Amino acid sequence: MAPTTEGEQKHPRRAVALAAHDASGRVSPICISRRDTGDDDVAIKILYCGICHSDLHTIKNEWRTAIYPVVPGHEIAGVVTEVGKNVKKFNVGDRVGVGCMANTCRSCESCEEGLENYCSKITFTYNSHDKDGTVTYGGYSDMVVVNQHFVIRFPENMPLDKGAPLLCAGITVYTPMKYHGLNEPGKHIGVIGLGGLGHVAVKFAKAFGMRVTVISTATEKREEAMEKLGADAFVVSSDASQMKAVKGTMHGIINTASASMSMYPYLALLKPQGKMILLGLPEKPLQISAFSLVAGGKTMAGSCMGSIRDTQEMMDFAAEHGLTADIELIGADDVNDAMERLAKGEVRYRFVIDVGNTLKAA
Ligand code: NAP
Ligand code: ZN
Ligand code: ZN
């Protein structure tokens, strides 16, 4: 297989990967280059990688940011194979993960506050320019080299496959619950969208002792949401009477919808001064009327991933509570079918690629 990536000259180390070459939403095998393990780096043999809806938005170029070839994947779980001489936190053989960030400036206000996820010079795990100018490649690949600061330790009892999705989906829902005071027992929280993010939002909210109502477009998810995931209630958003029954009852809503929507019916579910936290990143703008926020003094906020400190805290919290993602483990050959099913909302509830056993050079 011919090397095809721009990093080839700078980085001689070869890796196998799946890449999108255009906006078709499909990936195919490619040979990429990874850097040598630097003094502060950790080299990781990737065993599992979750498929986030952001991977799909990116490869289809729905955010107009794709730098092809795109090797997606930011829910990476694997084992350390090599460490640089300054690395103290990790040893060869450790079980580790990498989420959405591969680097940040480490010196701006956000970085100094430990909120690297808001660094303006952030390098994302894929489809992003690294400090040496090359483009980063994500976890649909057999190995990766990452600065030690951005590597997360897997707690002992956390499985790599079911734990991988927590590195994006988990931290993305955990962070707003923590920073917006929605993690208090007894509070009523709504979760819009029962997909990868939504299903772990239900699990974290229950672990925090909250009352959880799922607000979904899919009637058929009701039973699982209540019986398997532990939601207290389930509302179908297209059913006006079900929506009316929970009007004005929620302290906060975690909105994970991947498609654009009218916010009006959802904001009506909040109590006065309730908070709507946007996590979903639809291609098209949301529709919202000022009245639906102003009347009731409601807040609408966004939240992006989470810091490294919070990611480790979230993983440890999840391990303590036996909390993992519900996954469908797939082979590297199944990724294109999985992408189609993800687009249709058919996943229960996260696809995870069995990279270690199935990703081979074409
Ligand atoms: P997912 O597994 O596809 O789940 C998205 C869910 O949204 C679907 O299962 C569906 O749930 C719901 N949905 C889809 N279309 C809808 C519509 N028109 N109206 C209402 N609900 C709709 O995706 P995911 O991986 O959880 O990601 C969700 C979104 O979050 C994506 O846009 C992704 O890019 C974004 N994201 C953001 C961050 C961040 O840092 N903020 C991090 C990761 C992902 P129901 O079937 O239950 O209706
Ligand atoms: Zn993600
Ligand atoms: Zn910074």
Please describe what this structure looks like:
It is a single chain. This protein is globular. α11 links the parallel β16 and β17. By secondary structure, it is α/β, with parallel strands linked by helices. It contains twelve helices and 17 strands. Helices cover 23% and strands 25% of the residues. Bound molecules: NADP nicotinamide-adenine-dinucleotide phosphate and zinc ion (2 copies). One zinc ion binds next to loops.
Please indicate the count of domains: 2
Rg over alpha carbons: 20 Å
Q: Output the CATH class name of the largest domain.
A: Alpha Beta
Number of strands: 17
What's the helix count?
12
- What proportion of the residues is helical, as a percent range? 10-25%
SS content category:
alpha/beta
Bound molecules: NADP nicotinamide-adenine-dinucleotide phosphate, zinc ion
Pathway: Aromatic compound metabolism; phenylpropanoid biosynthesis
Protein name: Probable cinnamyl alcohol dehydrogenase
EC number: 1.1.1.195
Keywords: Lignin biosynthesis, Metal-binding, NADP, Oxidoreductase, Zinc
